[in-house]
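[Discussion] Sanity-checking designs against the backbone

I'm trying to build intuition for which residues belong where. Below is a structure token string of 110 positions. I'd appreciate it if someone posts a full sequence so I can compare it with mine line by line.
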């Protein structure tokens, strides 16, 4: 069984990995330090965006699934609804014209 890391630890590691790759990212909502859900918004700086949330596949592995895709405004509205539902969520906004998030890299899947 893989040990679980706290949400805060994962967020800090993710922001560091993005910074090393020169991908701008900002923490827009700070959630519960130990178990807050983490959402990642990818802003492609052309008026469009997508948001992803961590979930589980059928084998119990952590994966990233789309929460919302569309205009930046539509994605922000979806994130605002999530904040109302769960005030302990973490939201990270990644700004990259190429849409890079690094979420598919080893160590970031969960």
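Best answer:
Here's mine. Compare freely.
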């Amino acid at each position: 069984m893989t040990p679980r890391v706290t949400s805060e630890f994962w967020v800090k590691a993710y922001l560091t990995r993005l910074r090393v790759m020169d991908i701008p990212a900002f923490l827009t909502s700070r959630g519960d330090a130990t178990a807050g859900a983490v959402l990642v918004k990818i802003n492609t700086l052309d008026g469009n965006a997508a948001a992803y949330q961590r979930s589980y596949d059928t084998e119990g592995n952590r994966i990233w699934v789309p929460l919302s895709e569309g205009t930046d405004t539509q994605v922000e509205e979806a994130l605002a609804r999530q904040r109302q539902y769960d005030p302990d969520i973490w939201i990270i906004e990644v700004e990259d014209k190429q849409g890079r998030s690094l979420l598919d890299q080893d160590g970031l899947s969960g």
